[in-house]
């Protein structure tokens, strides 16, 4: 069973610009998350041990809170963070779409530049604390994880085309 998902996407923008789009909340709110959802940043502290806590909400649904805790940051090459669904206060809660989803996922993003273009490789995996049932659920949800990241990367591509002119 696959216990990690790898997504790669190349952007027609320099690495510094792409990296900043991931690290500055004023930029993130313009492209992060599902298309058409309302996005609000509650806390943003981009440093090792720092927290990024936000809410997102579809037009026809309930608000969903997510929290990142940054584990490692190498500017402008790499971001490693633990991600989990949370309540408004930042406490870990079960995923609203599947109670068997891993409580925490480890996300590693690397940024490589070549000829003015930037390739991001995102690796998403359940945290070491995941149960067998959570690992199974994650393994069965590979397509959902891919689609989520690809949709988000497409929005970032649109955003970058507007700010890099």
TrEMBL record:
Gene3D superfamilies: 3.30.530.20. Signal peptide: none annotated. InterPro entries: ASHA1/2-like_C, START-like_dom_sf. SUPFAM superfamilies: Bet v1-like. This is ATPase. Belongs to the AHA1 family. Residues 12-160 form the Activator of Hsp90 ATPase homologue 1/2-like C-terminal domain.
